[in-house]
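Sample 3 of the quickstart, ligand magnesium ion:
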Amino acid sequence: MLTKIELENFKSFEGKHTIDINNLTTIIGLNSSGKTNILEGISILSNISSGIDITAFFNKYAEMAKGNIRGGASGCCRTRKKVFGLGCTIKKSNGNSLVYSLKIDVANEDRVYVDEENLYELTAEGGKHLLFKTIKKEKYKGDIVVEYDNKKRGKNPRIQCDRSYSILSQLDQKLILNNETLNEVQKLIDNNEDKDYIAVNFLKDLGTKNKNTIYQDIELIKENIKNVQSINPNPDKVRNYVSRDNSPIFTDASNLSAVLDRLISGYRMAERRYNRYGNHVNHEKNSVDLSHKERYEEYKKKYDMLLSIVRLLPEYEIKELSTIITPSPLRDVMFTCVEVHNGNDVKMPASLLSDGTIKVIAIATAIVTSPDNSVLLLDEFDSGTHQTKSFELLKKLFEVAKERNIILVVTTHNTSLLNQYTVKYLKGTSIVFRAKETGNSEIVNFYDLNGVEKLLARGGLGDAALKDGLDEYLYTQENKEVALPEWLQNIGEGHNG
Ligand SMILES: Nc1ncnc2c1ncn2[C@@H]1O[C@H](COP(=O)(O)OP(=O)(O)OP(=O)(O)O)[C@@H](O)[C@H]1O
Ligand SMILES: [Mg+2]
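Result:
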């Protein structure tokens, strides 16, 4: 489970900063405080660690996915710095934590590469074990030497990696096994053993040799951060026909119709198959073939979740989502919303839908189509949503996300939404603000503020909670050194009756 993200000299964050990640993480703060910067950091970490060519990612792929890293590679670095860092913490099921960090050198936009990268395991008892780290960096070399733990006595082995990709993406089971095999052979040769002896001993050992498990930890990190999807829908780009393809939803949701087409036509097909073959007995297995049923139910569940989110906003009923397809040979697609007006079904194509409706359909589609274990980044998730509907929407998104094992990271400017936050939402809320003296971005977890417990015990979790809690915090002696900005005192004002 992903529990923390770390940023170092990244955009508005000077030095090291950590943000806690919960199943629902809410980031609040004034304009330009650093909220979107955090989301960009998470997205970059995911992309780079997955093994994309780092230079190409900043120059090309980011644009291709219709998202963009503002300011490219050099824009990621705190001004006057040449290296920025990103990292994450993953909690393992045994209670230990894996701490991964990556530093990227951006001095030359045409060659952006790994400056440092390491992975440590922290035990519940406070121990710290190296799993791998880069050593010896020679500025102009394409390779970087990596030392890793082979879970054996003696010196850790070393291996060369290409620094235009993350080490994490290179150091897989195969590479480690090969390196260990080579090291073994080398050792035998160095000891001047005769050829037959080498062969015999080598083969004898091969089966028992590799107790090394670091690649399992490496896989765990990859698994938890590989599916990060950022959604910031641009309704104008959704209102056109698009070609049908297999891409996941783009950041700007411009291919929303294609993604919905896949979901809806997949659902219809599964339904037809199920109706036709669902009860057929498979004579070989002597049982009813369940695969049609399962597939149908899986689609139905996703489609129902989608509709349950989309239905929250408008005053009229949304009966279903469907698609219209242009005649061949083009066969481009646009989704439509079947609305019920006055008891009549009206098919409303995407080209006519409201901004708010399109945004919600895009977010709902992302949440039901993302793979399990995804992290969904929703910047200003409720922009364009009526204030009275935001909390309902968030609750629903959170419910679906939990069911699908998806982590939601959202930002919002909506104070009336925050007033409705209960403990479980507050626990995942972080405040981003600029430190008065330095202008650097700072992150504070709301639940770490002093006095929050007391105020929650008082029962008021709405505006009073937010207001009193932060006020109290501001005036608490122990916290004098952290000067929170003035605007925080006013959260919830105007809702106190
Ligand atoms: N490389 C950089 N070095 C220093 N500061 C930077 C860098 N890149 C961006 N910033 C700062 O970060 C700000 C943008 O922050 P961000 O987009 O995260 O704000 P936000 O909290 O999302 O605000 P909004 O609510 O307006 O969207 C910029 O205005 C700039 O001050
Ligand atoms: Mg922003």
